[in-house]
């Protein structure tokens, strides 16, 4: 080292800054955050945190405690100002308090009645909407007017049924009369899994079912239904309009492309076949089916571009009129029409709020695409529908948008156009479009990957390639054609435009099918909530920070990746909430309790607990289980015994009279009947249809090798609002009415959970 001079050696020496220098640097970076008003973004983050505490953790804050939080927030803010410190903690705490308040108000004001159990019943209902699925079956959304044989004491307001029988489809506003089988939305298929009753509860949907035959013809003495209210009349008109547009698009384009095109315009996805959905999901393109921010932005952007270019071509008008603001007004009107035509789903409403705020910003000469506008959109959505914070669509939509808007300054660089001549400029523009598409797909894919892994336990490794190949076609061809075709429809000129739209969709679906056949998405197993929370915190810091403090997100993201894998041992026995499906988990996969388990349950369990088997089954074009549990061929009249891999003894029977023997001879007594007994005197764990109704699906195993038996339930002991129907009487116990008492909802329990009588 003698050849290095002392001066150079001193320059190469790394000096560790002292505490004062670190504090000064942090203070300077924090002042930059304050100067750029980035603390405003704490409001939607705090409100979302409060909503998660209410809907996810079941926190029930009393009004007095909420007031105490406000007082504490004000105190912290005052003390911070007195010492010249930041008021960020008090602001965040205040936002959390308001998030909790918004969540509790939504819970208190949501009055959806969910059917408490399966019921075969005759209904009279008003048709709200009608769709036709890929198998030609009719799908109705109905508003129940009355029920009979039996009379339900807790009839849901809105139900959805599928009718396979051939019949003349009923139009929105007409009356549906007939015999149907109804049931509540199912619960989670596993502990900590997605609760399928959550979204229907907040959307007002109280039951699913199917028609036992077609609708009955109206009786000769049927009274005229009550006149539609103004709101119902508007809903009927919108539903009829959506039906007309859907049928026209399907008629012109036809096939799977026609069904997808209808879904992009009117939101009616019933006609899309499972093969198409699987190929789009397997290649990371499923987001194109849900009308959300991408679709709304493309529609509004296309409308704004067409109006601006059209006014410019008119010459003198562009000199005297505010062209940009007029185009923004037209884009706002078009977006509103698209919201109505598409059915105004929750995801579409969120996208509309974001577009609304951005277009209003244009009207007031403000920049449209900013983090502040994104935070305003999040605030509006979380204050009105705070439950949305737990839905995959909300999380993935805002994660992608936040990453694109927040990280855009890192990728945006002004470059001088040195290309001379039209060919050079064209090549440069093509390169910019392809580069922007690549960066957009990469950033959005990385931002949404944790949420996809957490909610769906799958990732599409070739999703980036699929999006790169299809998104330019989708954005520059398909959606503009959809917009133009809809507005040409009243003049009968839509045919050629929709035909072109169909060609674009043929290309997209062929790419999805090709890639899915060779590079399908991969199962990634379970992900912990703590890992998702830490990764979300890292993403927020990375995208919302204006200073170099954003790089503090890197160790946080690494920590989130380390915490993400769920390292808990897999359960050894899983039982679905209906008691019909259960499975043993072993080294060679899943072994089911019956030869033909529910396809839905088998797919979910295979994806979660046996990814390797799931991948093999999907590669072969099937989802068959690994096998069945030996010795369960004749359990109708006798007690069957089997063991888990660690030696947990299970006794299974379908006859409730064998319950006592099952309790005495096993660690787990599983009786697939609604027995009244609640627990075993022997200390064994008792599982019946009644207990499953309270607990939901179960996962049974050991906390460690050779440790104690653990039973994890899907429904908490104190059910959430969307699971409160599990505490209500069971409709299937009710006998057919024979007199005045039974006609108004009297119940009769036969003790075994089966229907006591069938409606005629």
TrEMBL record:
NCBIfam families: ComEC_N-term. Its main location: membrane. Keywords: Cell membrane, Membrane, Transmembrane, Transmembrane helix. InterPro entries: ComEC_N (IPR004477), Competence_DNA_uptake (IPR052159), DUF4131 (IPR025405). It holds the Pfam family DUF4131. This is Competence protein ComEC. Residues 264-545 form the ComEC/Rec2-related protein domain. Residues 65-210 form the DUF4131 domain. The keyword Cell membrane applies. It is a multi-pass membrane protein. Residues 733-760 are annotated as: Disordered. The chain crosses the membrane at residues 39-57, 87-105, 284-307, 319-341, 371-388, 394-411, 432-454, 474-491, 498-517, 523-544. GO terms for cellular component: plasma membrane. It is found in: Cell membrane. It comes from Fulvimarina manganoxydans. Signal peptide: none annotated.
């Amino acid at each position: 080292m003698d050849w290095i001079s002392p001066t150079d050696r001193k320059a190469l020496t790394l000096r560790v800054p002292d505490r004062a220098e670190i504090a000064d640097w942090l203070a300077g970076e924090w002042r930059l955050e304050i100067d750029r008003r980035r603390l405003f973004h704490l409001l939607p983050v705090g409100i979302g945190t409060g909503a998660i505490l209410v809907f996810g953790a079941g926190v029930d804050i009393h009004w007095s405690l909420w007031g105490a939080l406000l007082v504490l927030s004000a105190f912290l803010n005052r003390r911070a100002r007195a010492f010249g410190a930041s008021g960020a903690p008090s602001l965040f705490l205040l936002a959390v308090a308001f998030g909790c308040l918004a969540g509790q108000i939504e819970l208190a004001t949501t009055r959806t009645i969910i059917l408490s159990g399966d019921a075969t019943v005759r209904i009279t209902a008003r048709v709200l909407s009608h769709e036709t699925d890929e198998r030609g079956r009719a799908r109705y959304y109905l508003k129940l007017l009355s029920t009979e044989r039996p009379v339900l004491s807790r009839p849901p307001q809105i139900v959805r049924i599928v009718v396979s029988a051939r019949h003349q489809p009923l139009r929105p506003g007409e009356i549906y009369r007939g015999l149907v089988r109804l049931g509540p939305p199912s619960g989670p298929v596993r502990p900590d899994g997605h609760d399928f009753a959550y979204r229907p509860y907040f959307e007002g949907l109280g039951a699913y079912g199917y028609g036992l035959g077609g609708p009955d013809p109206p009786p000769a003495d049927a009274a005229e239904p009550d006149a539609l209210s103004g709101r119902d009349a508007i809903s009927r008109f919108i539903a009829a309009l959506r039906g007309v547009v859907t049928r026209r698009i399907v008629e012109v384009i036809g096939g799977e492309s026609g069904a997808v095109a209808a879904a992009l315009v009117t939101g009616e996805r019933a006609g899309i076949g499972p093969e198409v959905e699987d190929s789009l999901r397997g290649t990371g393109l499923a987001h194109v089916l849900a009308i959300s921010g991408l679709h709304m932005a493309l529609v509004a952007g296309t409308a704004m571009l067409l109006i601006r270019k059209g006014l410019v071509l008119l010459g003198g008008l562009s000199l005297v009129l505010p062209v940009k603001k007029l185009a923004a007004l037209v884009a706002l009107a078009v977006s509103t029409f698209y919201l109505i035509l598409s059915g105004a789903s929750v995801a579409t409403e969120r996208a509309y709020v974001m577009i609304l705020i951005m277009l209003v910003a244009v009207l007031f000469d403000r920049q449209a695409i900013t983090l502040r506008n994104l935070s305003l959109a999040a605030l509006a959505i979380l204050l009105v529908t705070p439950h949305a914070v737990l839905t995959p669509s909300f999380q993935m939509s805002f994660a992608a948008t936040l990453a694109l808007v927040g990280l855009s300054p890192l990728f945006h660089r002004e470059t001088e156009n040195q290309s001379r001549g039209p060919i050079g400029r064209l090549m440069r523009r093509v390169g910019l479009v392809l580069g922007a598409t690549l960066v957009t797909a990469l950033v959005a894919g990385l931002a949404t990957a944790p949420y996809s892994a957490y909610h769906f336990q799958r990732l599409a490794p070739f999703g980036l390639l699929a999006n790169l190949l299809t998104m330019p076609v989708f954005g520059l061809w398909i959606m503009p054609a959809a917009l133009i075709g809809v507005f040409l429809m009243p003049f009968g000129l839509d045919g050629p435009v929709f035909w072109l739209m169909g060609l674009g969709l043929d290309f997209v679906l062929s790419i999805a099918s090709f890639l899915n056949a060779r590079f399908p998405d991969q199962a990634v197993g379970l992900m912990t909530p703590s890992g998702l929370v830490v990764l979300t915190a890292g993403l927020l810091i990375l995208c919302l920070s204006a200073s170099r403090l954003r790089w503090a997100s890197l160790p946080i993201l690494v920590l989130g990746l380390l915490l993400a894998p769920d390292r808990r041992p897999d359960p050894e026995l899983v039982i679905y909430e209906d008691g019909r499906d259960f499975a043993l988990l072993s080294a060679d996969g899943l072994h089911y309790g019956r030869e033909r388990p529910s396809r839905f349950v088998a797919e979910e369990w295979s994806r979660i607990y046996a990814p390797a088997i799931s991948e093999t089954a999907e590669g072969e074009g099937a989802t068959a289980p690994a096998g069945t549990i030996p010795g369960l061929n004749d359990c109708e009249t006798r007690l069957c015994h089997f063991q888990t891999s660690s030696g947990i003894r299970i006794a299974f029977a379908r006859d409730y009279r064998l319950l006592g023997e099952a309790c005495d001879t096993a660690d787990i007594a599983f009786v697939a009947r609604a027995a009244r007994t609640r627990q075993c005197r022997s200390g064994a764990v008792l599982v019946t249809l009644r207990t499953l109704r309270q607990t939901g699906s179960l996962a049974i195993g050991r906390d460690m090798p050779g440790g104690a038996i653990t039973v994890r339930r899907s429904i908490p002991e104190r059910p959430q609002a969307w699971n409160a129907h599990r505490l209500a009487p069971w409709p299937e116990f009710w006998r057919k009415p024979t007199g005045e008492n039974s006609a108004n909802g009297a119940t009769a329990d036969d003790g075994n959970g089966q229907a006591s009588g069938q409606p005629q």
